[in-house]
UniProtKB/TrEMBL annotation:
PANTHER family the record matches: RESPONSE REGULATORY DOMAIN-CONTAINING PROTEIN (PTHR44591:SF3), STRESS RESPONSE REGULATOR PROTEIN 1 (PTHR44591)
PROSITE patterns given in the database record: RESPONSE_REGULATORY
Protein's UniProt name: Response regulator
Domain Response regulatory: 24-137
Coiled coil: none
Key words of the record: Phosphoprotein
Domain of life according to the entry: Bacteria
Organism encoding this protein: Aliisedimentitalea scapharcae
């Protein structure tokens, strides 16, 4: 169970319907939309959730308490989540369960190579998949006794969280469009778009990523993403 956790409530034990009751899960994720999905999954499972939106914030959290589970997005605004996975995998005492998450095809291989115990492919919307990823890696004494109800509920994050992410992208592009920023925007937008089922935005993000990888001019790709983002902010596109 959680150690050194000021948020912990004593004598809360998992049940068949709330198998993660008593656990604190730290989610290191910069997307509000993805974070909202994780919040709903934790809520349905009985777990407490704490969120860090960057590596710096995650390390601050870990100075205060050690969660039972940490879910780490691989693409963060101040660096790669892989570095945090490596640090935690080698730390003593170790966080009980380390899970990587990403929408990239290579994400699972990279996360497992860095020392993660498991991987959640975005979008993470299945309650059963989320619970299984955590429970199968917990110590036996922290799992619910007896049979567990396998609820394959599909959660749906609040569309307002998607709007928050669009506003974040607009702010980032207004501040800078250097190479590092554009790589981050391509990764961030691509992940949100796939999670939200927004194919136009996903295609635009993939186009920017390809252009950056090939060393080509990025003005048109960047303008395309900026235009789609503004369109969604102005018209609050249904997702």
């Amino acid at each position: 169970m959680d150690e050194l956790d000021p948020f912990a409530t004593p004598n809360r034990h998992p049940t068949p319907t709330r198998p993660l009751l008593g656990l604190t899960i730290l989610v290191v994720e910069d997307s509000r939309y993805a974070s909202e999905a994780m919040r709903l999954l934790c809520l349905r499972s009985g777990a407490r959730i704490r969120r860090a939106d960057c590596l710096k914030s995650a390390y601050r959290h870990l100075q205060v308490y050690r969660p039972a589970v940490i879910v780490i997005d691989l693409g963060l605004p101040d660096g790669s989540g892989l570095s945090l996975i490596r640090d935690l995998a080698e730390s003593v005492p170790r966080v009980g369960v380390i899970l990587g998450t990403s929408g990239e095809d290579t994400g699972e291989t990279l996360a497992m190579s860095a020392g993660a115990d498991g991987f959640l492919a975005k979008p993470v919307t299945s309650l059963a998949v989320f619970q299984q990823a955590v429970l199968t890696r917990l110590p036996a004494e922290d799992r619910p006794a007896g049979l567990r109800l396998c609820d394959d509920e599909q959660i749906e994050p609040d569309p307002l969280a998607f709007q928050d992410d669009m506003a974040h992208v607009a702010d980032v592009l207004n501040e800078s469009q250097d190479d590092k920023v554009l790589d981050y925007v391509a990764q961030f937008v691509g992940g949100i778009a796939r999670s939200a089922g927004d194919t136009s935005l996903a295609d635009a993000a993939a186009g920017l990523a390809r252009t950056r990888a090939n060393g080509g001019p990025v003005a048109s790709d960047t303008a395309r993403i900026a235009g789609l983002v503004q369109e969604r902010l102005l018209h609050r596109k249904a997702i």
